[in-house]
Amino acid sequence: MKFRKPRWPVDFKLVLFSADGEQLVTVRNVGRHGLCLTDCQDLRKGQDVKLLFAGTGRQGRVEWVRKSLAGVHVDRALGEVELAMLRQLPRRAGAAGAAEGLGSGTPAGRSRET
Fold first, then answer.
1. Is residue 38, in this structure, part of any structural domain at all?
2. Under a CB-based contact definition with an 8 Å cutoff, are residues 45 and 23 in contact?
3. DSSP-derived 3-state class of residue 38
4. Which domain of life is it from (predicted)?
5. CA–CA separation, 36 vs 49, rounded Å?
6. Whose CA is closest to 16, among 55, 63, 32, 43?
7. Are 62 and 44 in contact (CB under 8 A)?
8. What ranges make up the beta strands (E) of the chain?
9. Residues in the chain with pLDDT < 70?
């Protein structure tokens, strides 16, 4: 079984810049080394992107694309302070995972007991 690094469910918008222009996308989850995005248009695996969010930015590369979802690996890992700030951003009502109590600081797919 492949180990998956911790990711935390979030729900906020960011601006993604690519060679094709800019677009507003939604972040579904975030980890130290990447983000899962939705509402993406015309992204390609291997494409270089720049992400602007919460007063900061990161360069990255699209690792995978499935319909309107994309996984982006960031060139410079997010620090603990940045991750904590992103996890505290308000979630939209009805956001995926909100009903299960996610977004409370527990990584996606893990319980507090582990």
1. yes
2. no
3. strand
4. Bacteria
5. 13
6. 43
7. yes
8. 8-18, 21-31, 34-38, 48-53, 56-66, 69-74
9. 1, 3-4, 92-114
